[in-house]
From TrEMBL:
Endpoints of the signal sequence: 1-27
Record bears the keyword Signal: yes
Matches recorded under PROSITE patterns: TAT
Entry keyword Signal: yes
InterPro entries in alphabetical order: DsrEFH-like, Sulphur_relay_DsrE/F-like, TAT_signal
Protein name: DsrE/DsrF-like family protein
Length: 175
């Protein structure tokens, strides 16, 4: 004779119901602590308008901020970072534009003081008619941005290309 399947006990049913009711209320996203050590990064900046450089520099801040805070607490000398510019943002580095781009120049000076290297494409400088003496003193001139990209990636630097778009909605509108 075939045994009839057992019906779940009342206690088991109540347990399932409790788990279903409590599950979504207790579930949440979990933070991770990735073991970051001695990162090397190359920010490739090529913008279609110099006013977008302020937004691109937030990518630099977003990279460094968690590294300098607990639990990582890295020192600036523990991190290698290069910002390579070869688009319209080059005009922000020209001394005669310092007043117009004072905020971004101040931020670049700050990051340069933290050990970030700011490099500019020598070919692009020629296109803009700039000479070394026209630029801020924290800038280094590379022969070619493309050649620099290849070189530093071959040296193990991670490539970060900031994506700067025109913001059409605020966070409050879409939250």
């Amino acid at each position: 004779m075939e045994a009839l399947p057992r019906r779940p006990s009342r206690r088991r049913w109540l347990g399932w119901l409790a788990a279903l009711a409590a599950g979504p209320a207790l579930a949440q996203a979990q933070r991770v602590q990735t073991p970051y050590r001695a990162p090397k990064v190359l920010f490739d900046i090529y913008l279609d308008h110099p006013d977008k450089l302020a937004a691109a520099l937030y990518w630099v801040r977003s990279f460094f901020q968690p590294l300098f805070e607990a639990p990582y607490s890295l020192f600036p000398e523990d991190v290698r970072a290069i910002v390579l510019m070869h688009g319209t943002e080059i005009v922000t580095l020209a001394r005669h534009h310092e007043a117009r781009y004072a905020e971004v120049v101040q931020r670049m000076r700050y990051w340069a003081g933290q050990g970030v290297e700011f490099r500019v494409c020598g070919l692009a400088l020629q296109d803009y008619g700039y000479r070394p003496e026209d630029l801020q003193p924290f800038v280094r001139i590379a022969p070619s941005a493309i050649t620099e990209l290849v070189h530093w990636q071959n040296e193990g630097y991670a490539l970060v290309v900031p994506q700067i778009t025109d913001k059409r909605v605020s966070i409050e509108q879409i939250r």
